[in-house]
Amino acid sequence: MAVLQSNREKKLKLQDLNSFITCKLCSGYLIKPTTITECLHTFCRSCIVRYLQDRDDNKCPTCSILIHETNPFEMLRSDQTLEDVVYKLVPALQANEEEREREFYMQQSVEERKKINEEPKENGTNAFDSTDYKLASKRVKLSGDEYDSGENFHRDDPQIGVCLERLCDNSVQEQPIRELVRKYIRCSSRLTIAQVKKFLKVKLDLRTADQVEVMCNGEIMGKDHTLEFVYMTRWRIKEGSLLTLQYRPRMDFL
Predict the structure, then answer these.
(1) Is this model's pTM higher than 0.70 or not?
(2) pLDDT confidence of 141, banded at 50, 70, 90?
(3) The CATH number of domain 17-89 is 3.30.40.10
């Protein structure tokens, strides 16, 4: 009987979980949860960004730990898992938030159109006709945070230097995979190992990205590992040194 009772589902009230899914800055439910990597405290993205912009000490609002001496925004990470949990626990929150964003960005688009319409062209016509408005409206991301110019290419991400070295097999005279002409690259620290393998596929003229394995300190890296994760957990060398990854042909063990 005791076993049966222990296996029963325990229902929790939402108010019992509020302390885990609310923002300490606005006291509302977490919208686009963003975590400080130095202390793992989480806030709404807009709340923590506004907080850091308005202050000069670059400290966490909860524990006052120094986030970063010069650029605290580099130490902020979105928490998609927590966002999914919040939306599951709070009915209609996601729909309401998406509607608010849609109204906000549509209003921004209308105000932009109104402002440009007030500036006449030299020939006396409006500088912004209906065709231009339709094209400009496509730039607005109704479910995002900013204009989608399509030209960012992760340049705003924290950057990391990487050395890609071929792992040679001394037992054979001719290596199955050639060495990169330029083995040093600088890229976003949020790149995954899968994307590194795609890069190698292009540079080495391979049929598929799965033909190579990427390793760090002799350990094969998972395809979903980011370079930042590899650097923090696998690259056990002096801090500040260049992250070195080795690549080799994929080895299938029977």
Answers:
(1) no
(2) very low
(3) yes
